Structures are given as structure tokens and as C-alpha cells.
Amino acid sequence: MKYSILLFSTLTIAAILCVSPPLHLGTVAADQSSMQVALPEGAKARFGKGSINAIAYSPDGTRLAVSSTLGIWIYDPHSGEELEVFVARNADAVVMQTAPVSIGDITFSPDGRMIASAGSDSVVRLWDAVTGEQKAIFTGHERSALQIAFSPDGQTLASGGGYWDSTVRLWDIRSGRQKAIFTGHQSAITALAFSPDGQTLASASNPNEDKTIRLWDPVSKRQKAILTAHNAPVYTLAFSPDSRILISGEGYDRRTVRLWDVNSLQKKQTLPGHQGNVYSVVFSPDGQTLASGDGDGYVFLWDTVSWEQKASITHTTDVQHIAFSPDGKTLAIANSAEVHLWNFVKGTPIRQLTKRLDVPLSVAFSPDGHTLASGSRNGSVQLWNVPKQQLITALPAPPLLRYGSWGWHPWRVESVAFSPNGKVLATVGYEQIYLWERVPQQSELQTSSTVLWCQKAILTGHTSYIYSIAFSPDGNLIASGSADRTVRLFDVESGQHKRTLIGHVGTIFGVVFSPDGKTLASGGFGDTVRLWNTVTGENTKILATDTWVMNVAFSPDGQTLASGGSWRDKNVTLWDVSTGTRKTTFAHAVELKSIVFSPDGSTLAGGGYDGTILLWDMRTETLKRTLRGHTESITSMAFSPDGRTFASGSYDSTVVLWEFEPTVEIIPATYTDNGTAVNVQDIDFVEPPFRQDVTQWHLPEGAKARLGKGGISGNIIFSPDGTQLVVPTSIGLWIYDADTNKALKLYTEHSQRIGRIAFSPDGKTLVGSRAWGDAKVYLWNADTGKHKATLAGHADDVTNIIFSPDGSTIISSSEDGSLFLWDAVTSIPFATFGGSEDGSMRALAISPDGEMLASGGWAAPLQLWNINTRQTVATLESHRFSVDAAAFSPEGSTLASGGYDATIRLWDVESHTLKAELSGPTRRIWSLIFSPDGQTLASSSDDGTIFLWDVESHTLKATLAGHTRPTTSIAFSPNGFTLASASQDGTIRLWDGINGAHRATIAGHTVEVSSLAFSPNGQTLATSGWDSVVQLWDIAAPAPL
User: pTM here?
Assistant: First the structure.
């Protein structure tokens, strides 16, 4: 047989591409073989040593430490020999001796006797650098510790917390006591560095919340300065040997190296040239050279006198870590999977010290169970010998696009699958499917010591990422699901595209054939699972899931379909395939990335984003076991055909093989090569009529109805006359009769994934924008649902939309910092405000007379605009970091604003002066609303507390406590007597609008309540949540807990 690459869209023939096993198993290849270190209970092998997080040279240069998601590896940099492995165990008794701890930043003590590490379990550890004995642990950080740094004298250790901590802590090495806690950063600490003279500690934080570098005095334990000239993330910091200059490496739009004068606290210079995020900066030991590495794979070497670039090194992939050897002769360069050593003097490579398995996004067993395929984030595919627990070979990544600065490979192998006869392996590469075929035994290419896999064909047709592929049981068809919202069927033998199945409204994450091959199931965005007839292409059933579907799996008998995986739901739903009805639901604490049945059907496995694997007993429908062994999210799972081995892949860059005992003996099926082809014809798919009934299942006490038709994507609103309720979902806008609770209409024209929506004051027009990924504003006729206009002008996502009180103007704000004023009749913009590249608009309010507009946002000040003159009236010096809420009083004389700094300010609209600053909240202000009579102001914040303020006296009237998570929405009833609040804790609370007394707690949603609205008559409260249901409550008789 002739082996060639066929691109079926053009039928061109390319060169032969065949891959054989590595002939020499040295240090690098050994890194890919089975590892018995840190094996969890129940596991028999682990492939990979974890994703690399940091590197550090010992002070004498004889050892190089490499930290990873599994532990710390110690190498001899001269010989490349692996010397030691240090593994930390989780201190939690529940997972002790089962799950290793992911180690982040590491550093040697100045005398080289100790290694300090920061762990994902929030523990800072001290290790004996020679024996690996754990000498001490420091606890205090919340959830995780990310950064670590020794003082020059070795007496103090600094550590930086993760996303839930944001503190910098100092520890006394001798006593083990905490010396100081530095607060001020608003998010995770991304970099720490001591000055060589020991007088200054520098820290940087995550830019989404905090764009500062802070300088601390480690002796007096006080903050010395804040450097704020950053509008981009700071990933790395380094002091010059004389302590006079601080270097910072930046990313996103800046992608530069910045120099700061430590004494004057002024920016000295910017070193341009990097095209990717600058992840690492480091000075050479003699201080004459600065090395900077970026996400595009370049290391730039700068002369520290002239600050001119004197050389560069082009790395094979992205550069995340750089370290000089103490003698300055060697430069170590690393990313998450590789460490390379370079001769710094000659600029030539010395050796590749280690090559790790990159993140395995997908795993699949061959039909005989002897081979495991894993598809990686870097585009390569590994083939493992399961009995010998060795790497057989690696199929290379397609030569499409190189690694980008955002860290995404366009050819990520999201899915791999073996054909039923084991002769063909299918792998995904971006928009294409690659078919690999084993060379037959009689081929002259075959030798006694080599097995060749040759690329047989490339299947094309999709126009965006492919996330899932599956072979039909007879091996004749391969199905694929893609972000282009289609499922496609290909003929395996000819490579011809057979059919396109259309019906999904979003990305398709999972496809699977039924065991008899007659049905194909697909799931994804759009809150549905669809069943297709594989012969006719007919969409035979639509299963409404009420949430996104990341995974689908058939039971071996074909009678049950499992679906699940969304972060909004976290549950696995089991369906009766013949009737399309729900059978039961398995709950999971976190969202699931993968679900799979055991071959005997006795067990369903679910892999979570927390790295745990749950095994459910299908007979008793109970949880029977939890597997803990990964330190990062599960990516994929597979059972061997005999059911005795279970494989799991993870973002910790390892694959674990688990021992598994099947309930019954499984005999793998045998397959022939002459299966009958299925005759499939192209069809046009038509969406069936929507159901109009109201769901009455499991209504909580006090609820009038439960409405669920697709995942809810935005805020719910009543029409101005109160007769209709509009519910935006992933499939369109549902219009319900507010009295009968019946679905009246479904608007689908340009109406999928609408996140913000508003009625015109006369109720004749609906205006909305998508929840994400769209910078346009859409208008519909509220009676017919007909699309009236699309308003295009913003450059980024729309954050707010409001009508002027007279309905003549539509005002929209955007993440790009701009405000647009549109003529509601002509749909033409007549004014544009703002547009700062440094800030996004978050808060928007219009005065009752329609003449004044208030706006504010992230890095955007609070501003007043005159709509008639289209001029800025005033810029109010208000909140630090961001303005997140704004509201005019009903009579229009007062403007209230709230922000990230936890303050509320009242402004005189006419004089533009500050009337009062209201203190009391301790966390970010998310929402502000005046009572209808204007006498009371309500505020909600991050900690779930609601405050009621007397507007005239500027005093606190009441503190409303009870929610255990942040509040998401608050609203006064039309008469002002009741205040309703919704929360991430899944409850709605009703309060007295005058004195703040708690009236009732309503429980009916299973997860976060995201939106609420009163009907115009105040008798009905509508609530919606991430459980994808809308509930209507009779406020006259709410049901208390």
C-alpha cells in the first residue's frame, strides 16, 4: 500500500510521514517512561513528571532544582543525571498519602543548604537540599502560596499568596515564626525579589485586580513605595547587583522590560523588542548582562551599561524561566515541559536536561489494551506500551502555526481515538483530523525492532477547533464535533466527507456513537444533547439539559446516555435513550471535564477540575470510590477494553494508570476489516417547534412556576406593562405570559446568548447585547421578535445598555471604555464619549430628566456628561481602582457611586461636589439602588452584606446580614416597602424596605441566583440562576425556610 498525506479538499499528494520508536533511551526519553514516585493509592503507573513551574541553581552550581506539579527534581547540570526527587504530601487528612502537592516557586538558601518551596496547598516548605528531608513548614497563606524569596543573609524568607490571599509574608528561618504580613495587593502575588543589599523587598500582583509593584522595608516592616505606571501584568522582577535598579517584565499589550530607579522611584527606561509576554528577567552574576525571556520563545541579552540588546537566543518553544549558573557560563532556559542548557559565552546549546510530557488533553486505549495514546497541548501524540509502561513513540505536531504568546497551540490535540480494529489512530489538530495507520507486517518498511505509524490522511471541512472525535463501532465512520457548531461524518477508508449535522447553536464538546452504531449523541453549548440517526442524519431527539454539556457517554448496553461537565451545573445526568427522559442525576462538587462508563457498565467515572475522580455504582446509583492522585484538573479518562486498567490525564502533565476490578469478565470484541458501509445522504436540519409547557417538576414551596428552556445567559426583565417576562437564553429570547406562565414566543433572530436586555419605555422595542464575544447592540420588535437593527461601533464587549426616559436614545457602554449614544429610531450614533484604552466602562446611569449621564469603570473615572450638548460636565475624583456602580436619585439631584475601594459617595449633581462619603462596607461595592421615594439608598457588596442608608442625613439605617456569599442583585418593590436580594449562596432574601428587618428567605435554586426583577404591580418576583431556571414567586406569601 502506498502511504501519502491526502488533503481531501484539494486531493493533493504530499510526502510520506512515518514515525518509529526512539532508538536511544537516554535521560530525555526516560523522563517520558513510567514513574513510580508519588504514586497514589490504587495506581500502578504514572507517565510524566509533571508540568515545570520553576528552576533554580544551587549557589555552588553543582545542582539544578526543577519544581513541578508533582514535586522537586534535582539534576546534575554537568552530566544531566537525575539525583533526587522531593515529593510533598498534602497535609489534609482526607487526601494524605494519596495526592502529591504541586510545587510552585523554589529557591536555594544563600548557603545552599536548604531549598524553599511554595505549594498549591498554601504551605511554604524548607527542605534539606541534599537529603530532601522536610525541615520545616510555614502555614498562614490561604489556599495557595505562589512565590518565594530568601533574603541575602538567609535569615528571612518571603512568600507571596495566591488568588485568595494576596498577602506577602516574612518568616524567620531560625524560629519558624511569622515576622510580618504585608497587605495592599488586591490579587495573587506574581513576583517577589529581595534587593542584594537586603534593604528592599519588591512584589507584584495579578493585573486583573492590581497593576502595582510595591516596595517594602523588611526591617521596619513597612511599605516604602508603590510603583503604579503599569497597565499590564507584571510576571517577573529582578534587582541589579548594586540594588539601584529594579527590572520588571510585562505582558499583554505592553510586552516590555521596564527599568525603575529604586531611589527616585521613577521609570528610567523601557527595553522594547519582545513580541510575547515577558515571563522572566535575570541578571548575570557579574551584573554586566540582563537576560529576558518571552512567550514567543526568545531570550534577549542586554548590556547593562548602554542597555542595548547585544544578542538573542531563539528557543524551540516559549520561555517561562531563566537561570544563570553561579559562574555565569551556563544559562538554563525552561518552559512547562523542557529545560535546556546553553553555553552563555558561545551562545550554543549544551544539552536538553529534561523533556516532560506536556499536558495530556485526551487519552484512548487500543482495542487490545496494549497501547495507550495521549494527545498533548503542544500538538504531539504519545503512544505508550501499557504492559511495559514505556513510551513507544511520539507522533509530531502538524506544522501549522508556532506557539503563540497567549500560550495556546492552534493544533492542541483535544481528542484521540483508535479504530475498532486498532489499525488506525485518529488525532485532532485544530480544524483537521489526522489519520495514522500502522504499516502492515509485510511492508518493507517494517523491521523486527521497529513499528511504524504513517500518516494516512487529513480530513478537512470544519472551520474552527475540533473538540471531540469518535469511530463508529464498525470502524467505517468517524464523527467530529467542533466550535463551528456542526457535527461532521467522514468515511474512514476514502477520507470523504459524508454529512454535516446542523442544529447546535454553540460549540460541540462531545460526540459518541451508540454501541450498535445506529445513533450518534452530541453535546455542547446551547444546553441540549442531540441524538442523530447515523443512516439518515435525522435529529431524532433533543434532550434539554438546562446547562452546557461538556461530555457525553453511552452505557455498554446502549440504553443509557450520560451527559454533564458544565461549571454551571457540576452534575451528571443519566438519560433513558429510548424515551429521552431523565433517569437520575449524580452530583459532583466541582465541574466535570470527562465522564466514561466501564466496559461492563457497572461503573461511571467522572473526572473533575479539582483533580479528583469519582466512581459511581450504576446498580445502586451511589458513589463508591474517589481517586486522588492528580494535582490539577482532569482532562480525559479511558478504560482499557478488559476493564482492568483505568487511565486518567491531567493538567498536571501526567497520565496515571489505575488498577480496576471489573464486576464481570470482559472479553474484548473482535472486528473485521470488511464492515458494510453506511449509505448517508446530506440533509437540511430544521429545528422542531419549541415546547410551550411550564415545567412543574420539583417546585419549591411558595413558587408559582419553574420556566426552563435552554441555559439562561443574562438578566430577566418584565415588560413595562407587566404582562410579559423576557428570558434570554443560549438559544434565543423566550417571551412568557406573566399571568399564565405560558411560553408565548421564541425570538431566535440574532438573539442567542444575550446577556443584557432592556425594554424601551413604551414597551415596543427590545434592545440587547451578547454575554461575551460580541461588540454589537441588537434591536428587536417586542411584539413580533423581528430583528430591527444592529448597532456596530464598540471595539469590545458591551457592558451596559439603557434607554433614555423618553425612549428616544439608547446608551451603551463597552469594555473598550467608550460610550455610544444611538438614535432609537434611525439606529445611528449621534455622540461618542470616552474610549480610554486603559479602562472599561462598568457603571452607567441616566438622570430622570434624561439630560445627564453618569459613567465609570475599571481605571475609568466617574464622569458626568450632558446628553444635549454632548460635552463632559464634570470629572469627579471618586474611587480607587474602579467605579462599579452608579445611580441617580428619583428626583435627580443626587448621584450615588460605589467602587472597588468599598466606599459609597453621594454627589450633588448641580454643583458637582461631594455631599458625603458613606463608610461601613469592607468589600467591593457591586450594586446601588435608591428606593422609589428617594429617601433610602441600598448597597450590596462582595461579602454578601447589604446596607441601607438615610439619604438626607447620610447615616446608616440598617445592616442586612444573612447571605453567606456575595450578593448578585438587589431590587426595591415598586412601592418601596420590600427589598429583594439574590446571592451566590443560592437564596433570595426579602427585607423590609424601610427598616431593613428580615422578612423571609426563599430557597428554590440549586446554585447561584444571578438575577431578579419585580413585576410592575409588585406582586410577583422573578428570579433566575445558574441552574438555568426562572422562578416566579408570590410576594404576598413568600415561603420562609
Answer: 0.58
